[in-house]
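[User] At your convenience, examine this fold.
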Amino acid sequence: MNFDLLPVKLIIFTILLWPISRVWLRFKDNSVKFGTFLFWTALWIAGVFAIFFPGFLSFVAGVLGIGRGSDMVMYFALIVAFYLIFRLSVALENLRSDVAQLIREIALLNKKGK
C-alpha cells in the first residue's frame, strides 16, 4: 500500500463509507433488491480499492490501452452514468404508462357507477 497522501485517502475512505452504509440500510429494510445491493456495494468498494491501490488502476488502464488510471475511471463512470440514465428513462416511461392505464380504469369505473 502506498502511504503518501494517507490523510486524504483516509478522508475519502470515510466519505465512501457513507454510501456503503446507505445501501446496506436500504437492503436491510427491503427497499432495494439483492442485485441492486450487490451492484452499488461493489461499485463503492471498488472506489475504496482504487484509493488505496492506485497503481492497480494504472496497470489495468495500461493493459486496456488507456493512458492513465484516472482516465479509465472517468470512462467507466460515463458508461455507468449513461446506463443508469437509460434505466431511469425506461422506468419513468413504464410508470407513465401504468399511471395512464390506472386513470383509464378509474374513469371507466366512475362512468359505470353513475
